[in-house]
Amino acid sequence: MTPLSARRRFALVSFLTWLPAGLMIAPQVLLMLDRGLSIVEVGLVMTVYSVVIAVLELPTGGLADAVGRRVVLALAAACTAAGLAGLVLASTFWGFLVACAVLGVARALSSGPAEAWYVDTLHALEGPDADLKPGLARGLMLEDVALCAGVVAGGALPLAGAAFGGLDPLAVPILLGAVAAVGWLVVVLVALPEPPHERASLGGLLRGVPATVTSGVLLAVRDGMLRRLVLLSAAIGMALTCVELLVPGHLAGLTGSAELGATAYAVLAALGFAGSALGSALAPATARLLTPKPVGTPGEAARSVRGAAAGLVLGGVALAGMALAAAFAEGPGLGAIVLAGLPYVVLFVGLGVHGVLKAELTHHRVTSAERATMSSTTSLAGSGGAALANLTLAPLALGLGTSAAWWLVAAVVAASAALLHRVPAAFPSRSP
Fold it and tell me: Which of 35, 70, 289, 306 is 20 to 30 A from 105 in CA distance terms?
């Protein structure tokens, strides 16, 4: 395998990992409501999904570090196919609950192993100083492309219900997601040879996963660089939750109805994923432009740090733009929708730039034995930030208005760039 083929395989797996999720986003809740669940029951189902992910996030990361990347990715793909097939067939609360619990297991399993596979493979081919940015940028870009394409297709396919014969139109995108997950499974088994990695026996696995998880968490707490990167993930989790929580209702007010607001949000979500893909693609160039590198100037780590900080600042400015648009919106209309949508897309461009460069900094800081666990720790921190946002932003928006909540999150995101201040000019690598 060559470095180029490793990048291409990682990009393909990244796309296939998120295509089933994209196809599911638009019809999932509507399918449950259409088959008789109440909105409260739908909320309970989605809560179980979130709880399963949170409980398994770190153990599955430790599993990938203990037994290998490919087997965990294969399990994730198989669980995704099974969970989506369960959604298609479910007709009761308990059927949907079980299907979404399986999807939660799949999501936890898929968090980290693909990136860990790519980094380990590139290190084996080019050494620990290999440039991770191009491959990470391509992979994260294609994740967003998959989500964008999936959201658009998932929203459009049910409109052509008559073309699917006796199939439930709302179930068609989810069924296609299950087919895509089978394709993902085949690609993982055929195209992802396991990179050099210490194997564990069954007894070693049972002992090794808790030990790996514990060491990963302790590393994130004790290592100053990783601690700051994990805190950044919590800030990003707050920002994304703020958007998911407040944008749909805001758009409903700007369009004049809940139905039009839902349509506007679907379109805006697709544009946001496209903006994130653009930011991911621009991340390497952003890092180069912000820190030219003639002799004697800061090295590659400084480039990545400044690029990551710039992405955060751009995201904070975009959130401030959303706050201004909300404060000065005079009522429903296309102009108000455009003013709300433009900073939304810019926010995701900034987060796309930041995400690639933060991932590179993280991977250069950990060893192969800690890589997937650290990805899971980072993801869990994002969930913690999201939980904090859910508990605080809704009451704030209710009491002081949507604009006040966005101002607060804008300040948190922009200020979090200070966590990247005074970083060494060379990567503080712990990789062998």
Answer: 35
